[in-house]
Amino acid sequence: MKHLFALLAIVIGLFLISKVCFSQKGKDLKSSTKNTMNTIHQKDHVIYFAGGCFWGTEHFFKQVRGVTATEVGYANGNLQNPSYTQVSTGKTGFAETVKVSYDPQAVDLRLLVDLFFKTIDPTSINKQGNDIGTQYRTGIYYNNVEDAAIIKEQIAKLAGQYSGKIVVEVEPLQNYYDAEAYHQKYLDKNPGGYCHISPDLFELARKANPEKTTLNSEKSFKKADKETLKKELTPLQYNVTQNGATERAFDNEYNDEFREGIYVDITTGEPLFVSTDKFESGCGWPSFSKPISDSLIQELSDNSYGMRRTEVRSKTGDAHLGHVFNDGPADKGGLRYCINSASLRFVPKDKMKAEGYEKYLPLLVKK
Length: 367
Known about the structure:
This protein has helices at 2-38, 54-61, 84-87, 109-118, 145-159, 186-189, 199-207, 226-232, 235-243, 349-352, and strands at 45-51, 67-75, 95-102, 127-128, 131-132, 138-142, 169-172, 176-178, 261-265, 271-274, 278-279, 287-288, 297-302, 309-314, 320-325, 336-339, 344-348. It is an alpha+beta fold. The strands form four sheets. It has a six-stranded mixed beta sheet with strand order 7-6-1-3-2-8, covered by helices on one side. It has a six-stranded antiparallel beta sheet with strand order 11-12-16-15-14-13. The chain is elongated.
């Protein structure tokens, strides 16, 4: 009998040990996952935005260049590991919050605060859009004390735009728990899902922090594949550049365009022609006396339609541009590059710097 009790005790002991070990292993795994998430981007900074329903706020910030990661969760409440159901009661103190990781070398915290204010009514207490409750209050929560001064300074500047009192919380992050998996990247998985933020603001976020260029920066011009071009170009642009089609004379975008600027390959963005070399030929298509450089184009024999012509194609994009003839103005070299508008994009002088074509500005000086 003693042996039976001893054996039973051993079995029970092994069972309890296995339960303890399994439970401890589960806890360690969760802790390890959390730590991994927090150290993926060592150079990144993290800020937390509570702006009503976190689905839209997360989708908004992920559009901003310089934001490296977004996650939805619950911040500054009074429970451990709260569930969505618990937070939804409005009695836990938690706010639906988006954890935003960003590269401070690429995007400034001030800009993120400015953008955040465009998605909320900062004078509304515990209500954003159709969502009401303490869990939908607005707030900005920080880990670094240095961020607090920047946030408060920026809010003070924005406050002048509103007649009511700004009620956005600015507080240290007390605690944060990531939300359930089905909430993460919700609008990516459910494009038609509920969102209190206007879709127009997502486009604003995408354009809010364009990549900066400098005098010495070089734009990279690359040929895209056919499927990409089909998506990016109009049917006419695709048919002209990829199939060698010709658009209608006198009924095209740049035949009558004589503002200062440059003409770039529609398929790559590479500058090919400049306004100072454009002239009115009367043929019905844009005409140039020469390209910016002979190295940018290639000329091929074209005997189609019973004619002997010289086709002009862009070298980098291998796009059909038009043809070159020997009936151009003698004082300009005697050539006429007859080019389809559909193969080009015109960048006016006043937009060249912003679009990264600043180094081509000297070409616009008339000699």
